[in-house]
Amino acid sequence: MISLAVIVLTHNEDKHIARSLQSVRPIASEVFVIDSGSQDRTVDIARREGATVLTHPFVNYAKQFQWALNNAAIQADWVMRLDADEIVEPDLAGALAAKLPLLPPEVTGINLKRKHIFMGRWIRHGGRYPLVLLRVWRRGAAEIEDRWMDEHMVLKSGRAVVIDGGFADCNLNDLTFFTTKHNRYATREAMDVLIEKYGLRVGDVRMTTKSVSAQAAIKRWTKEKIYNRCPFWLSVTGYFLYRYVIRLGFLDGREGLVYHLLQGFWYRFLVGAKVMEYEKLLSSATNREEAVRELAGLTGYDVSDLK
Length: 307
Fold this sequence. Notes:
Number of strands: 12
CATH topology of the largest domain: Spore Coat Polysaccharide Biosynthesis Protein SpsA, Chain A
CATH superfamily of the largest domain: Spore Coat Polysaccharide Biosynthesis Protein SpsA, Chain A
Largest sheet: 10 strands, mixed
Shape: globular
Radius of gyration: 19 Å
Helix content: 40-55%
Order of helices and strands: EHEHEHEEHEEEEEEEHHHHH
Number of domains: 2
Oligomer: single chain
Structural class: alpha/beta
């Protein structure tokens, strides 16, 4: 067993948590589950699987994960971020066990290649595989972006390498859960768009091609500098056609059609529509503090830390 702490955030994840924790059992020397008030069996299952369970109220994923980094009694040399519906497959566990102890000190991060399983099908096309993400780092070498959506771990020093192996996002809930979740996500992403546009966030860590995977950094730059500056109906349509036609998303079959339409068109359209709605209502704000208050009132989220 390598010196690796795994952190998992949970809220009503009894469908997934045992599977997730069992997948890292061969490699994790410490497991911390940070629960935000689950009403199901999540906490009992996590404890049964040997995890240390801490509880903390949820604001957003970034703040919850940063709380975990600040408060969990992590002793391991390496730390891994794992979602409750994600699985580390045996080949990746074996690769991590073999390679982590041999890495030179200047390597402080590990990028993993995540695949997405939707309605039982691996979505291989449309630019959805592989999603290269920084998910393992030396303790103290990374921090999480302070964002409402699409937050990434960012290296503070050193460099990252890629370790190949199966790493799957496989949520077992139905389409009602998927669309409800993405409606909440759309609100949070619309908030990030407006926060960035009007400079309401100050002092946040910034992505570079050295601090995260090059893929993640390029996607973020493209989204902020090009995609978000186009009329949303145009950027959404272009993005869907790029994914479904140019990046061959149609090869993912019926499940892929559902996924690419919902995640690559409907969700992105909803984000753009919410940005338009919120921006109209924010137009009456006369200063930064008033804009922050208005944003909190519109979305129902506490954004007082932006002041």
